[in-house]
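Lab meeting, item 3. Inverse folding demo.
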């Protein structure tokens, strides 16, 4: 967590509440540029129209949660 390195700084945590419900054609893959493989990217795995992609991304965004000042809860 960033707060461990920068004491006093707020840390916000973002995640998807129901990761099993990711729409078809999308999946999380490890970030190829990040050595430790602790960072994941949401990737498109099948061809789709832009409008369909936008709809799926909005669906995911509706299910995201944010916890402000997470270092206090951890």
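The presenter then showed the designed sequence:
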């Amino acid at each position: 967590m960033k707060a461990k390195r920068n004491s006093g700084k707020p840390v916000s945590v973002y995640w998807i509440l129901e990761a099993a419900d990711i729409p078809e054609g999308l999946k999380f893959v490890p970030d190829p540029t990040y050595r430790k493989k602790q960072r994941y990217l949401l990737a498109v795995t099948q061809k789709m129209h832009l409008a369909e992609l936008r709809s799926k991304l909005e669906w995911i965004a509706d299910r995201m949660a944010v916890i402000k000042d997470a270092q206090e809860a951890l």
